[in-house]
Amino acid sequence: MTYTARRLTRREQQEQTRVRLIDAANRMFAEGGIIAASLRNLCARAGFSQGAFYSNFTSKDELLLSVIERHIQQEVSLMQELVSKSDSEGIDGALDRLAYRLSELARDLQWSLLSVELQLHSRRDPSFAERSEKVKMASLREFSILLENLINRHNLTPVMPVFDLARGLYALWSGLALQGSIKEALPRDQVFLSFLRNMIVTPST
Fold this sequence. Notes:
This is TetR family transcriptional regulator. This protein is mostly helical.
């Protein structure tokens, strides 16, 4: 019996194009920075024309923010799944898994380079900095929800407001990602674990 593949709708085709452009940009921005990534080369790598690009994005800046947003959404979703499975393993197991995932993320060279590029581009371009700040704030709110979920599930009392806890954890991740491995220092997962235990592991009374 012969099956004919279903034709994609126009909306599905556009979404597929958008995903492939984001995938190509993710690699190119990390490899050589946003300034060095020409629109022509980016489109060629994704397999599309520049017209296809402008049907989905207004500029490389918008594409960069979309790359960042997608990555953060994926990571938060993955960590939310870890938190949702933590009831059976207790808070120690939950923190171990969360710390390990954060350390893996800090070890991801492509994502670390992309994060650095975002910061550099924000310094160079004030208008981009304003837009990237909105993405960053939205990401911190998402991460705050994740931490609040963990805290509520295990009846914990954080030592500071959850949003500030999210900011601190993000700053710690950024620093460890930039530093890389240091022979004399503790492994990154132990640093994350220590931070989490000291910030949120106090049981509520």
